[in-house]
Amino acid sequence: MSFEFVSLETIREIAHQYGYWAVFVGIALENAGIPLPGETITLVGGFLAGSGELNYWFVLGSAIAGAILGDNFGYWLGKWGGWPLLLRLGKLFRIREEQLHEVKEQFRQNAARAVFLGRFVALLRIFAGPLAGIAQMPYWKFFLCNAAGATVWASVMVSLSYFVGNLISLEKLVAWVAQFAILALILVVAWFVIPMWLETRKANHL
Length: 206
Hints:
Blueprint: H1 8-18, H2 20-31, H3 38-50, H4 56-92, H5 97-109, H6 111-117, H7 124-134, H8 139-164, H9 170-205
Helix pairs in contact: 1-2, 1-3, 2-3, 2-4, 3-4, 3-8, 4-7, 4-8, 6-8
């Protein structure tokens, strides 16, 4: 997920200039909870590897390491102070504490899948780590799911741009990946919101 004020050309220039560090830092900051275009930087890194400007394995290693480190930081941030912050945000947006507890419990029940698969979902990649910490997911379990998810996600992203980048334009590839991530987000939101809506509607009829 990227911002409109950061052009693809600018990201490509940053990746070209700083190479593996750009990939590592970009995805680490994004996974730590800072909404930076880490995914786009990773795709650009794979694209540059495909054109021979960077080494495929170093790009892949940088993406995996950045994703693991960033999510670990987000996890501890969520565990140490995420819940009080979430409660304050809930009051700001008029969300009842009971509803936040329900969301927290739902996430706890699906935490492993959320951490592993959340990297392919827009926004969830940014917030999966902090949410796992808020839900008090056991750290050893989080670490394993996080490392496995980071490896699979980075392998798909880097390999996709490395091989497919020679067949289609980088702009089109980034757009397709972003559309997939947004579609995945819509499905995840529906999965959480629809059961809560049905339960509220049922309670109102009793």
